[in-house]
Protein backbone atom coordinates (compact mmCIF):
# COMPACT_ATOMS: atom_id res chain seq x y z
CA UNK A 1 0.00 0.00 0.00
CA UNK A 2 2.87 2.39 0.73
CA UNK A 3 4.18 1.73 -2.80
CA UNK A 4 0.73 2.46 -4.24
CA UNK A 5 0.49 5.73 -2.30
CA UNK A 6 3.97 6.70 -3.49
CA UNK A 7 2.83 6.17 -7.10
CA UNK A 8 -0.18 8.41 -6.51
CA UNK A 9 2.01 11.10 -4.97
CA UNK A 10 4.66 10.88 -7.68
CA UNK A 11 7.82 8.76 -7.70
CA UNK A 12 10.15 11.70 -7.03
CA UNK A 13 7.87 13.75 -4.78
CA UNK A 14 8.55 13.60 -1.01
CA UNK A 15 5.58 12.88 1.22
CA UNK A 16 4.03 15.72 3.19
CA UNK A 17 3.44 14.55 6.74
CA UNK A 18 0.02 14.86 8.30
CA UNK A 19 -0.22 17.03 11.38
CA UNK A 20 -2.90 17.41 14.03
CA UNK A 21 -4.35 20.48 12.34
CA UNK A 22 -4.91 18.52 9.12
CA UNK A 23 -6.34 15.54 11.00
CA UNK A 24 -8.79 17.76 12.86
CA UNK A 25 -9.95 19.22 9.53
CA UNK A 26 -10.12 15.73 7.99
CA UNK A 27 -12.22 14.47 10.87
CA UNK A 28 -14.55 17.44 10.49
CA UNK A 29 -15.33 16.35 6.90
CA UNK A 30 -15.12 12.53 6.90
CA UNK A 31 -17.16 12.18 3.70
CA UNK A 32 -14.51 13.84 1.53
CA UNK A 33 -12.71 10.97 -0.21
CA UNK A 34 -10.57 13.47 -2.12
CA UNK A 35 -8.95 14.86 1.00
CA UNK A 36 -8.61 11.41 2.54
CA UNK A 37 -6.60 9.98 -0.38
CA UNK A 38 -4.51 13.14 -0.86
CA UNK A 39 -3.59 13.36 2.82
CA UNK A 40 -3.04 9.62 3.06
CA UNK A 41 -0.66 9.70 0.10
CA UNK A 42 1.20 12.70 1.52
CA UNK A 43 0.33 15.01 -1.39
CA UNK A 44 1.22 18.67 -0.91
CA UNK A 45 -2.23 20.15 -1.51
CA UNK A 46 -0.93 23.73 -1.66
CA UNK A 47 1.35 22.90 -4.62
CA UNK A 48 -1.42 20.85 -6.20
CA UNK A 49 -3.88 23.75 -5.92
CA UNK A 50 -1.38 26.10 -7.57
CA UNK A 51 -0.81 23.61 -10.40
CA UNK A 52 -4.59 23.42 -10.92
CA UNK A 53 -4.79 27.20 -11.25
CA UNK A 54 -6.67 27.72 -7.97
CA UNK A 55 -4.03 28.74 -5.41
CA UNK A 56 -5.22 29.22 -1.86
CA UNK A 57 -4.01 31.61 0.81
CA UNK A 58 -4.65 28.94 3.43
CA UNK A 59 -2.03 28.68 6.17
CA UNK A 60 -0.17 30.79 8.70
CA UNK A 61 1.84 33.84 7.70
CA UNK A 62 5.59 33.94 8.25
CA UNK A 63 5.08 36.68 10.83
CA UNK A 64 2.65 34.52 12.81
CA UNK A 65 5.03 31.55 12.68
CA UNK A 66 7.97 33.66 13.88
CA UNK A 67 5.94 35.18 16.69
CA UNK A 68 4.61 31.77 17.71
CA UNK A 69 8.08 30.22 17.79
CA UNK A 70 9.43 33.09 19.90
CA UNK A 71 6.56 32.80 22.36
CA UNK A 72 6.95 29.02 22.62
CA UNK A 73 10.69 29.42 23.32
CA UNK A 74 9.89 31.85 26.13
CA UNK A 75 7.34 29.50 27.66
CA UNK A 76 9.78 26.57 27.61
CA UNK A 77 12.83 28.51 28.81
CA UNK A 78 14.79 27.37 31.89
CA UNK A 79 13.87 23.74 31.41
CA UNK A 80 10.17 24.51 31.09
CA UNK A 81 9.92 25.96 34.61
CA UNK A 82 7.14 28.43 33.72
CA UNK A 83 5.27 25.84 31.68
CA UNK A 84 5.36 23.29 34.51
CA UNK A 85 4.22 25.97 36.96
CA UNK A 86 1.17 26.63 34.79
CA UNK A 87 0.45 22.90 34.50
CA UNK A 88 0.64 22.54 38.28
CA UNK A 89 -1.56 25.59 38.92
CA UNK A 90 -4.23 24.85 36.30
CA UNK A 91 -4.34 21.05 36.00
CA UNK A 92 -2.92 19.50 39.18
CA UNK A 93 -2.76 21.97 42.10
CA UNK A 94 -2.90 19.14 44.66
CA UNK A 95 0.41 17.64 43.53
CA UNK A 96 3.84 18.62 44.75
CA UNK A 97 5.28 21.72 43.05
CA UNK A 98 7.40 20.84 39.99
CA UNK A 99 10.94 21.47 41.27
CA UNK A 100 13.72 19.96 39.20
CA UNK A 101 11.53 18.24 36.61
CA UNK A 102 13.08 15.80 34.15
CA UNK A 103 13.36 16.79 30.48
CA UNK A 104 14.42 13.65 28.54
CA UNK A 105 16.18 13.79 25.19
CA UNK A 106 13.77 12.61 22.48
CA UNK A 107 16.07 12.89 19.48
CA UNK A 108 16.24 9.85 17.18
CA UNK A 109 16.56 9.04 13.49
CA UNK A 110 13.37 9.48 11.48
CA UNK A 111 9.77 9.74 12.69
CA UNK A 112 9.60 6.03 13.51
CA UNK A 113 12.68 6.31 15.71
CA UNK A 114 11.36 9.42 17.46
CA UNK A 115 8.01 7.71 18.04
CA UNK A 116 9.73 4.73 19.68
CA UNK A 117 11.91 7.05 21.77
CA UNK A 118 8.85 9.00 22.93
CA UNK A 119 7.05 5.79 23.96
CA UNK A 120 10.10 4.70 25.97
CA UNK A 121 10.37 8.11 27.67
CA UNK A 122 6.68 8.03 28.57
CA UNK A 123 7.03 4.55 30.06
CA UNK A 124 10.05 5.56 32.16
CA UNK A 125 8.48 8.84 33.32
CA UNK A 126 5.23 7.12 34.34
CA UNK A 127 7.04 4.96 36.88
CA UNK A 128 9.43 7.66 38.10
CA UNK A 129 6.89 9.35 40.38
CA UNK A 130 7.89 12.93 39.54
CA UNK A 131 7.29 15.69 37.03
CA UNK A 132 8.55 15.09 33.47
CA UNK A 133 8.35 17.43 30.49
CA UNK A 134 8.47 15.94 26.99
CA UNK A 135 9.34 18.74 24.57
CA UNK A 136 7.95 18.10 21.08
CA UNK A 137 7.43 14.34 21.42
CA UNK A 138 6.51 12.28 18.36
CA UNK A 139 3.28 10.26 18.35
CA UNK A 140 1.76 7.96 15.72
CA UNK A 141 -1.93 7.63 14.96
CA UNK A 142 -3.56 5.22 12.52
CA UNK A 143 -5.82 7.14 10.17
CA UNK A 144 -7.82 5.20 7.58
CA UNK A 145 -5.11 2.58 7.27
CA UNK A 146 -2.20 5.02 7.12
CA UNK A 147 0.09 6.15 9.95
CA UNK A 148 0.14 9.86 10.75
CA UNK A 149 3.06 11.16 12.82
CA UNK A 150 2.08 13.95 15.18
CA UNK A 151 4.20 16.39 17.17
CA UNK A 152 2.44 18.16 20.06
CA UNK A 153 4.05 21.20 21.63
CA UNK A 154 4.58 19.34 24.91
CA UNK A 155 3.35 16.43 27.01
CA UNK A 156 3.68 16.53 30.79
CA UNK A 157 3.81 13.43 33.01
CA UNK A 158 2.43 14.12 36.51
CA UNK A 159 3.78 12.60 39.74
CA UNK A 160 0.76 10.25 39.86
CA UNK A 161 1.65 8.91 36.39
CA UNK A 162 -1.05 10.80 34.45
CA UNK A 163 -0.32 12.39 31.07
CA UNK A 164 -1.41 15.88 29.97
CA UNK A 165 -1.20 17.59 26.59
CA UNK A 166 0.00 21.19 26.39
CA UNK A 167 -0.96 23.43 23.46
CA UNK A 168 0.97 26.69 23.00
CA UNK A 169 -0.72 29.25 20.74
CA UNK A 170 0.25 32.80 19.77
CA UNK A 171 -3.28 34.29 19.77
CA UNK A 172 -3.83 36.46 22.86
CA UNK A 173 -6.14 36.24 25.84
CA UNK A 174 -7.60 39.67 26.62
CA UNK A 175 -9.06 40.11 30.10
CA UNK A 176 -8.97 36.33 30.54
CA UNK A 177 -10.89 35.55 27.33
CA UNK A 178 -9.71 34.46 23.88
CA UNK A 179 -11.30 34.11 20.45
CA UNK A 180 -13.80 31.22 20.80
CA UNK A 181 -13.19 30.00 17.25
CA UNK A 182 -9.44 29.79 17.81
CA UNK A 183 -9.89 28.12 21.19
CA UNK A 184 -12.20 25.56 19.56
CA UNK A 185 -9.65 24.83 16.83
CA UNK A 186 -6.94 24.39 19.46
CA UNK A 187 -9.20 22.02 21.42
CA UNK A 188 -9.85 19.88 18.33
CA UNK A 189 -6.13 19.77 17.63
CA UNK A 190 -5.39 18.74 21.22
CA UNK A 191 -8.05 16.02 20.95
CA UNK A 192 -6.03 14.41 18.14
CA UNK A 193 -2.96 14.34 20.40
CA UNK A 194 -5.00 12.81 23.22
CA UNK A 195 -6.20 10.03 20.91
CA UNK A 196 -2.62 9.29 19.87
CA UNK A 197 -1.46 9.26 23.52
CA UNK A 198 -4.25 6.84 24.41
CA UNK A 199 -2.91 4.38 21.84
CA UNK A 200 0.53 4.59 23.49
CA UNK A 201 -0.95 4.23 26.96
CA UNK A 202 -2.96 1.16 25.93
CA UNK A 203 0.30 -0.74 25.37
CA UNK A 204 1.50 -0.19 28.96
CA UNK A 205 0.62 -2.20 32.06
CA UNK A 206 -0.88 -0.71 34.12
CA UNK A 207 -2.49 1.71 31.68
CA UNK A 208 -1.74 5.31 32.73
CA UNK A 209 -4.44 7.97 32.66
CA UNK A 210 -4.46 10.32 29.67
CA UNK A 211 -6.15 13.41 31.07
CA UNK A 212 -8.97 14.99 29.10
CA UNK A 213 -8.20 18.47 30.46
CA UNK A 214 -5.40 20.04 28.45
CA UNK A 215 -3.43 23.20 29.13
CA UNK A 216 -3.80 26.01 26.59
CA UNK A 217 -1.02 28.61 26.90
CA UNK A 218 -1.47 31.98 25.17
CA UNK A 219 0.07 35.47 25.48
CA UNK A 220 -1.62 37.63 28.08
CA UNK A 221 -3.16 40.91 26.90
CA UNK A 222 -1.00 41.21 23.74
CA UNK A 223 2.20 40.93 25.78
CA UNK A 224 4.74 38.11 25.66
CA UNK A 225 3.80 36.88 29.13
CA UNK A 226 2.24 33.38 29.15
CA UNK A 227 -1.21 32.74 30.59
CA UNK A 228 -2.54 29.20 31.01
CA UNK A 229 -6.11 27.90 30.90
CA UNK A 230 -7.47 24.41 31.43
CA UNK A 231 -9.66 23.25 28.53
CA UNK A 232 -11.92 20.21 28.77
CA UNK A 233 -11.72 18.40 25.42
CA UNK A 234 -13.90 15.36 26.15
CA UNK A 235 -16.50 16.44 23.60
CA UNK A 236 -13.91 17.19 20.90
CA UNK A 237 -12.15 13.89 21.61
CA UNK A 238 -15.37 11.89 21.25
CA UNK A 239 -16.35 13.65 18.02
CA UNK A 240 -12.87 13.30 16.51
CA UNK A 241 -12.64 9.60 17.41
CA UNK A 242 -16.04 8.91 15.87
CA UNK A 243 -15.28 10.82 12.69
CA UNK A 244 -11.87 9.22 12.19
CA UNK A 245 -13.42 5.77 12.66
CA UNK A 246 -15.96 6.56 9.92
CA UNK A 247 -13.34 7.53 7.36
CA UNK A 248 -13.35 5.40 4.23
CA UNK A 249 -10.22 3.30 4.13
CA UNK A 250 -7.61 4.64 1.77
CA UNK A 251 -7.19 1.24 0.11
CA UNK A 252 -10.80 1.32 -1.10
CA UNK A 253 -10.40 4.81 -2.58
CA UNK A 254 -7.10 3.92 -4.26
CA UNK A 255 -8.54 0.75 -5.80
CA UNK A 256 -11.38 2.75 -7.38
CA UNK A 257 -9.02 5.17 -9.16
CA UNK A 258 -8.21 4.75 -12.87
CA UNK A 259 -4.92 3.12 -13.74
CA UNK A 260 -2.03 5.57 -13.91
CA UNK A 261 -3.61 8.24 -11.70
CA UNK A 262 -0.95 10.56 -10.30
CA UNK A 263 -1.17 13.80 -8.32
CA UNK A 264 2.41 14.98 -8.92
CA UNK A 265 2.30 18.79 -9.31
CA UNK A 266 4.65 18.73 -12.30
CA UNK A 267 2.06 16.93 -14.46
CA UNK A 268 0.08 18.88 -17.10
CA UNK A 269 -2.89 20.82 -15.75
CA UNK A 270 -5.39 18.78 -17.78
CA UNK A 271 -4.00 15.50 -16.45
CA UNK A 272 -3.98 16.80 -12.87
CA UNK A 273 -7.57 18.04 -13.20
CA UNK A 274 -8.71 14.64 -14.45
CA UNK A 275 -6.88 12.90 -11.59
CA UNK A 276 -8.42 15.16 -8.95
CA UNK A 277 -11.90 14.91 -10.45
CA UNK A 278 -11.64 11.09 -10.37
CA UNK A 279 -11.98 11.30 -6.58
CA UNK A 280 -15.33 12.57 -5.23
CA UNK A 281 -15.22 15.56 -2.90
CA UNK A 282 -17.62 16.82 -0.25
CA UNK A 283 -17.18 20.59 -0.43
CA UNK A 284 -18.65 22.87 2.22
CA UNK A 285 -17.96 26.54 3.01
CA UNK A 286 -16.03 25.44 6.12
CA UNK A 287 -13.37 24.00 3.79
CA UNK A 288 -12.19 27.53 2.97
CA UNK A 289 -10.50 27.75 6.37
CA UNK A 290 -9.27 24.16 6.51
CA UNK A 291 -8.16 22.91 3.08
CA UNK A 292 -5.78 24.16 0.43
CA UNK A 293 -7.97 22.78 -2.39
CA UNK A 294 -11.07 24.66 -1.21
CA UNK A 295 -11.04 27.24 -4.05
CA UNK A 296 -10.82 24.52 -6.70
CA UNK A 297 -13.60 22.46 -5.11
CA UNK A 298 -15.78 25.53 -4.64
CA UNK A 299 -15.53 26.43 -8.31
CA UNK A 300 -16.46 22.86 -9.29
CA UNK A 301 -19.41 22.91 -6.88
CA UNK A 302 -20.60 26.20 -8.38
CA UNK A 303 -20.36 24.96 -11.95
CA UNK A 304 -22.27 21.80 -11.00
CA UNK A 305 -24.92 23.78 -9.12
CA UNK A 306 -24.35 21.69 -5.99
CA UNK A 307 -26.24 22.78 -2.89
CA UNK A 308 -23.31 21.78 -0.65
CA UNK A 309 -21.70 25.14 -1.42
CA UNK A 310 -24.57 26.76 0.52
CA UNK A 311 -23.63 24.97 3.74
CA UNK A 312 -24.07 21.61 5.40
CA UNK A 313 -27.21 22.56 7.42
CA UNK A 314 -29.09 23.51 4.25
CA UNK A 315 -27.81 20.41 2.46
CA UNK A 316 -29.18 18.26 5.28
CA UNK A 317 -32.58 19.98 5.10
CA UNK A 318 -32.94 19.33 1.36
CA UNK A 319 -32.70 15.55 1.59
CA UNK A 320 -32.26 13.94 -1.83
CA UNK A 321 -32.21 17.26 -3.72
CA UNK A 322 -28.53 17.72 -4.49
CA UNK A 323 -28.50 20.57 -7.05
CA UNK A 324 -29.96 24.06 -7.19
CA UNK A 325 -31.82 23.16 -10.41
CA UNK A 326 -33.54 20.25 -8.64
CA UNK A 327 -34.49 22.51 -5.73
CA UNK A 328 -36.01 25.18 -8.01
CA UNK A 329 -37.85 22.57 -10.07
CA UNK A 330 -39.32 21.00 -6.94
CA UNK A 331 -40.34 24.42 -5.60
CA UNK A 332 -42.18 25.24 -8.85
CA UNK A 333 -43.98 21.90 -8.79
CA UNK A 334 -42.34 20.62 -11.96
CA UNK A 335 -40.69 17.65 -10.24
CA UNK A 336 -40.36 15.94 -6.91
CA UNK A 337 -42.57 13.76 -4.76
CA UNK A 338 -45.21 15.84 -2.96
CA UNK A 339 -45.00 13.40 -0.04
CA UNK A 340 -41.32 14.28 0.45
CA UNK A 341 -41.11 16.73 3.41
CA UNK A 342 -38.36 18.73 1.70
CA UNK A 343 -40.41 19.09 -1.50
CA UNK A 344 -43.54 20.04 0.45
CA UNK A 345 -41.62 22.67 2.41
CA UNK A 346 -40.14 24.12 -0.78
CA UNK A 347 -43.54 24.40 -2.45
CA UNK A 348 -45.04 26.02 0.62
CA UNK A 349 -42.15 28.51 0.70
CA UNK A 350 -42.62 29.24 -3.02
CA UNK A 351 -46.35 29.87 -2.48
CA UNK A 352 -45.65 32.23 0.42
CA UNK A 353 -43.07 34.08 -1.63
CA UNK A 354 -45.48 34.46 -4.58
CA UNK A 355 -48.20 35.72 -2.25
CA UNK A 356 -45.85 38.25 -0.63
CA UNK A 357 -44.67 39.51 -4.01
CA UNK A 358 -48.25 39.84 -5.25
CA UNK A 359 -49.31 41.85 -2.19
CA UNK A 360 -46.23 44.03 -2.49
CA UNK A 361 -47.01 44.69 -6.16
CA UNK A 362 -50.63 45.63 -5.39
CA UNK A 363 -49.50 47.94 -2.59
CA UNK A 364 -46.98 49.62 -4.85
CA UNK A 365 -49.63 50.12 -7.56
CA UNK A 366 -52.03 51.72 -5.07
CA UNK A 367 -49.32 54.02 -3.74
CA UNK A 368 -48.36 54.99 -7.29
CA UNK A 369 -51.98 55.74 -8.17
CA UNK A 370 -52.44 57.80 -5.03
CA UNK A 371 -49.24 59.64 -5.72
CA UNK A 372 -50.32 60.39 -9.29
CA UNK A 373 -53.61 61.89 -8.09
CA UNK A 374 -51.80 64.05 -5.59
CA UNK A 375 -49.36 65.27 -8.21
CA UNK A 376 -52.27 66.15 -10.56
CA UNK A 377 -54.08 68.11 -7.84
CA UNK A 378 -50.91 69.98 -6.97
CA UNK A 379 -50.41 70.94 -10.61
CA UNK A 380 -53.96 72.34 -10.89
CA UNK A 381 -53.55 74.32 -7.68
CA UNK A 382 -50.24 75.75 -8.83
CA UNK A 383 -51.80 76.88 -12.12
CA UNK A 384 -54.62 78.59 -10.29
CA UNK A 385 -52.24 80.42 -7.99
CA UNK A 386 -50.11 81.69 -10.87
CA UNK A 387 -52.97 82.91 -13.11
CA UNK A 388 -55.97 83.54 -10.86
CA UNK A 389 -59.39 84.34 -12.42
CA UNK A 390 -58.92 86.07 -15.72
CA UNK A 391 -55.21 86.30 -15.20
CA UNK A 392 -55.48 88.75 -12.23
CA UNK A 393 -53.56 88.13 -9.04
CA UNK A 394 -55.37 86.40 -6.19
CA UNK A 395 -54.93 86.92 -2.49
CA UNK A 396 -54.16 84.38 0.17
CA UNK A 397 -57.75 84.18 1.28
CA UNK A 398 -58.92 83.19 -2.17
CA UNK A 399 -56.19 80.54 -2.43
CA UNK A 400 -57.14 79.16 0.95
CA UNK A 401 -60.81 79.14 0.04
Walk me through what this model shows.
With 401 residues, the chain is α+β, with helices and mostly antiparallel strands. Helices cover 51% and strands 9% of the residues. It has 16 helices and seven strands. A hairpin with a 2-residue loop joins strand 2 and strand 3. It is globular and about 90 Å long. Residues 382-401 have low confidence and may be disordered.
Give a brief description.
By secondary structure, this protein is of the alpha+beta class.
Helix-strand blueprint:
Elements: H1 2-9, H2 20-28, H3 33-40, H4 45-51, H5 62-75, H6 77-90, H7 110-126, E1 132-135, E2 139-143, E3 146-150, E4 154-157, E5 163-168, H8 180-201, E6 213-219, E7 226-232, H9 234-246, H10 250-255, H11 269-277, H12 294-304, H13 312-317, H14 324-332, H15 341-387, H16 396-400
Parallel strand pairs: 5-6
Antiparallel strand pairs: 1-4, 2-3, 4-5, 6-7
Primary descriptors:
globular; disordered C terminus; 401 residues; 7 strands; alpha+beta
- C-alpha Rg, in Å? 32 Å
Number of strands: 7
- Helical stretch count? 16
The average pLDDT score comes to 85
Adjacency order of strands in the biggest sheet: 1-4-5-6-7
Query: Which range does the strand content fall in?
Result: 5-15%
- Uncertain runs are 382-401
What is the N-to-C order of secondary-structure elements (H for helix, E for strand)? HHHHHHHEEEEEHEEHHHHHHHH
For the sheet with most strands, the description reads: 5 strands, mixed
User: Which percent bin holds the helix content?
Assistant: 40-55%
**Structural class based on helices, strands and sheet pairing:** alpha+beta
C-alpha end-to-end distance = 100 Å
Note the overall shape: globular
